[in-house]
Amino acid sequence: MHYSLPLIALLALIVSPAQAQDYPAKPVRIIATFAQGGGADLTARILADRLTDAWKQQVIVENRLGGGGTIGAEVVLRAPADGYTLLLATNTHIISHVVYPKVSYDFMKDFAPIGLVASSPILLAVHPGFKANNLHELTDLLRASPGKYSYASCNVASPQHFAMETYKHLLQLVAVHIPHRGCTPAAIDAVAGHLEIVATSIPSGLPFVRQGKLRPIAVMSPKRSPSAPDIPTARESGIKELADFELEVYYGFMAPPGTPQAILTKIERDAHAVLKSDDVAKKFAAAGLDVMQAGPVEMMRKINADHQKYAIAARAANIKPE
User: Fold this and answer.
1) What is the CATH architecture assignment of 5-119+248-315?
2) What is the pTM of this model?
3) CATH architecture, domain 122-246
4) Helix (H) or strand (E) run with residue 216 in it
5) Tens digits of per-residue pLDDT, 25-51?
6) Which end of the chain, N or C, is less packed with Cβ atoms under 10 Å?
7) Residues 6+ apart with CB under 8 A from 147
8) What is the rounded CA–CA span in Å between residue 89 and residue 102?
């Protein structure tokens, strides 16, 4: 039997809502492309537990490591477009797209965005003996002595590295980058006074701030973090070049290309519904995460804007993967 194209299109419109109504009819996989215990993994696992309850189907988190997130992303890209394999997407995937010369996909175009669910601010802090108390004073010190001071980041080509290099680029500053194998080692090195400045994560840096072992300078997110409301944003510094500064680590869901829109919409709606529970908010806060609800359009706006920022910083600082 042969159908005309208009009839096929009409059937697709009828079938798609039916698919969403029955979804999920079997377990769902979330591919987290980083190790257990990190922000991406914790975000995936907290939401997987709540979605399992909401859907009455098991939601399984599968860690696929390697290639700056590219290996796990490729698993999702090749999966059936039925909503049963999802990517826990982060802006580290954008960085990989910028710094790796041969990625087999276009992160900005080849996945179906679902929405953002969480963020983790990037913390800029200094050793208590350093003379800067705020971002104005830090900027003045770096400008007065190019190359004299060093800063730690969580790793080469990490979001924290890119945030600091973007700040430096916007203000034409020079500071020596000392990469570390993780955000906590970076913070510890600053606490020990081995270097003056650290760009780290809130979960790794905030305990030292509360103990008085690090002095907070700013968070790089557009708004103050509920987990650290006393720390100002870079935007609040009044430095004109930073008036629109916005770089943070964020997490969301993406699906294979061609996934029916009705299924994407159901996943977005249900994921955002569980974010409203006090239990999820408490678990996020304990992990140094903030709830971030944004749909697919806003998700792609942030991704595309950050891609441009990362590309500029990578060229300016000659950032390459290790």
Assistant:
1) 3-Layer(aba) Sandwich (3.40)
2) 0.84
3) 3-Layer(aba) Sandwich (3.40)
4) strand 215-219
5) 999 999 998 877 778 888 999 999 999
6) N
7) 174, 175, 176
8) 19
